[in-house]
Write a structure and sequence with these properties.
This protein is α/β, with parallel strands linked by helices. The protein has 4 helices and 6 strands, in the order E-E-H-E-H-E-H-E-H-E. It has one domain: HUPs (Rossmann fold), CATH 3.40.50.
Amino acid sequence: MQGTIAIPNTGFRKARDSQRLRINVLFTTPSETRIALKRAAALSAGLDAEILLIVPQIVPFPLELDNPPVALDFVSHQLLSIVESVDADLDGYVYLCRDRLQTFLYVLRANSITVLGIRRRWLFSRTERLARVMRRHGHQVILATSPCRQ
């Protein structure tokens, strides 16, 4: 695994811009994100594609935006443990924000290829609702499920 974890909150700038095919993985939960990263790595195999992990770190309103309730060192350590479980070259970006959906919509390019990991349930999960909203905004969403155990 090669790559970086960055916290580009100075001026809330977007991830670096390049002309390569970009596969975005949106952080939801650690287990779902691990599933999504493995699917993104499989999709990018043999392609000149970059994988970007986009992590919104919610900061509630009583706190200043640059003062998250969870230490960024802890978040970075947690992300590195997830990223190291995937054999792919990827970069991760942590965004301090108030609204997860608005952050995703701001950061993603138009018509982005986006991978979300999900665990199948009877009712629509929060991640599946996020996928529907992302599709309504024109993004190409791939739902990656964990393999069924037999």
